[in-house]
Design a protein that fits this description.
About 35% of the residues lie in helices and about 20% in strands. By secondary structure, it is of the alpha/beta class. It has three domains: about 5-40 and about 225-295 and about 450-490, FAD/NAD(P)-binding domain, CATH 3.50.50; about 120-220, no CATH class; about 300-425. The strands form five sheets. Strands 7-6-15-16-17-14-18 form a seven-stranded mixed sheet. The protein has a five-stranded parallel sheet with strand order 9-2-1-13-19, with helices on one face. It has a three-stranded antiparallel sheet with strand order 10-11-12, with no helix packed on it. Helix 1 (about 10-25) links the parallel strand 1 (about 5-10) and strand 2 (about 25-30). The longest helix has 23 residues, at about 120-140.
Length: about 500
């Protein structure tokens, strides 16, 4: 059955869904409010510097490879990527510097030598993370949470019978505190809670599964940068028949008796049998479905963090830095207390520094580097962000300069700043929260908006604000879930 499908938004989830639908023979049009695809995965430019504006880590590349395989193409013809030898370089305030190598055994050796941790404990943790991924992936990542059948399936029952292995009743920090003697490694593995904007002192130990994606499966980087992933997916979509309309914000989702009729663009109704939304669900219901009761229950859980990002054009290179670098806070628990309890920013924030020109040489001129400097900040609840930018800038420059033993301030040629206000304005992420709801409870996975509403015929949802969550792999997973739902219903 050939369907006419409108996809709202050309983020990663929307692009992947469009490709999958077109390959099934459906007529697909993507409506994107901006001039380029990618959503949060955009880019910035200044003179001969270029920055990836959003996500900076590429894991589970098989999910993207699958889209090319379905189209009977080879991804490496369009997108080449390499596995990272060093995933992240960690800097601690006590002077310890630790390289998280991509090879698991090399990482174990480095971590054990640098922290005096028993290597057997580190290996057991990596095996544990692998086992948790095996138990959860089919249900919690690729499962359809809109269907009761998911929760009586053999795979769900298998996971439920081994729930003790998922550390659901422990916090992430509690599980890691019991597992390691080294404070440095506890902090290192606690940080993976931030990958979906959560608090390791509240989030369940199940989130330790995230570290498996890097330390067991490896981390990668595209040879032309992260934004190229979105550009290449758009081009793949066009090759399989998807039509794109850019600078075309959808004004309303048109429906009658809870059946989709199309979308309204520039005052004109464009008919469709199905609509797939890649829009933050807050704005979807507020702006595109104002006549549908607002689903308050999906906004009761604690929101995820946002970010403050400084894009710095540097006039020199720093050979002591890697592609991904992290400068840890001295008081990690206190930092998360600021983020989630008082909605403020500590004077000593953990600082992430990403330099794509380490691999993509054209992203900075010879002798220079493009610094993407980010800290986690709370959602926007009306804080004085202008004052916060001034304070944060001072604190992170002092922190990086102290640890690198080099004053970095004189080497900043140009600066662009993003905070929760313009993150919300540019990406339509409610209150600037990058991942929608946080995972700060053992039931967080069940509180996300599903990928389909049973009471609404023809409306589907993908992207970071719905199940299974934010980040490139999960957005690609949401597209795969919706593909399965539509295929099951329409064939």
């Amino acid at each position: 059955m050939k369907l006419k499908i409108s996809v709202i938004g050309a983020g990663i989830g929307g692009l992947a869904t469009a490709i999958r639908m077109a390959l099934k023979g459906h007529e697909v049009t993507v409506f994107e409010q901006s001039a380029v695809p990618g959503g949060k995965m955009g880019e910035l430019r200044w003179k001969n510097y270029r920055w990836d504006a959003g996500p900076s880590l590429f894991t589970l590349p098989d999910l993207m490879e699958e889209l090319y395989m379905l189209a009977e193409e080879e991804m490496k013809v369009s997108v080449r990527y390499t596995q990272l030898e060093v995933i992240t370089k960690y800097f601690y305030e006590d002077g310890l510097v630790l390289n998280a190598y991509g090879d698991p055994e090399a990482f174990v050796k480095e971590a054990a030598e640098k922290t005096s941790e028993n290597p057997g404990r580190i290996r057991r943790f990596l095996r544990k993370a692998r086992a948790m991924y095996s138990l959860t992936r089919d249900v919690f990542i690729f499962g359809d949470f809109s269907s009761p059948r998911t929760f009586v399936s053999r795979k769900f029952l298998r996971s439920a019978m081994q729930i003790y292995r998922l550390e659901v009743l422990s916090t992430m920090h509690g599980a890691n505190r019991r597992r390691f003697r080294s404070d440095h490694l506890v902090q290192l593995f606690d940080r993976y809670a931030t990958y979906n904007g959560s608090n390791p002192y509240k989030a369940p130990g199940t989130l330790n599964v995230i570290s498996h994606l890097e330390h067991n499966l490896g981390a990668y980087f595209p040879e032309k940068g992260m934004h190229t992933l979105a550009i290449e997916l758009q081009q793949l979509a066009e090759r399989v028949g998807v039509k794109f309309e850019f600078n075309a914000p959808v004004e309303r989702i048109v429906h009658q008796d809870k059946r989709i009729r199309g979308v309204q663009v520039n005052g004109e109704t464009r008919s469709a049998d199905l609509v797939v939304s890649d829009v933050d669900i807050y704005y979807l219901y507020r702006d595109l479905l104002p006549d549908v009761p607002f689903p308050e229950k999906y906004f009761k859980p604690e929101r995820s963090t946002s970010a403050m990002i400084f894009y710095w054009a540097m006039d020199r290179q720093f050979p002591e830095l890697e592609l991904h670098n992290l400068f840890f806070s001295r008081d990690y628990r206190g930092e998360f207390g600021h983020l989630f309890d008082t909605k403020t920013i500590t004077d000593d924030p953990t600082t992430y520094l990403f330099i794509s020109s380490k691999i993509v040489k054209s992203d900075a001129p010879e002798g220079g580097e493009n610094w993407f400097v980010m800290i986690n900040v709370p959602e926007n609840t009306g804080q004085d962000w202008d004052a916060a930018i001034v304070a944060v800038r001072k604190n992170i420059i002092a922190k990086i300069s102290r640890i690198l033993e080099t004053d970095v301030a004189p080497h900043i040629l140009h600066e662009t700043v993003r905070d929760p206000r313009n993150i919300e304005e540019e990406t339509f992420s409610f209150r600037g929260s990058l991942y929608g709801n946080s995972s700060n409870s053992s039931m967080a996975a069940f509180s996300r908006h599903p990928n389909h509403r049973k009471d609404f015929h023809g409306l589907y949802f993908v992207g970071g604000s719905v199940h299974p969550g934010g980040g490139i792999p999960l957005c690609l997973a949401s597209a795969k879930i919706v593909d399965g739902l539509i295929d099951k219903k329409y064939g």
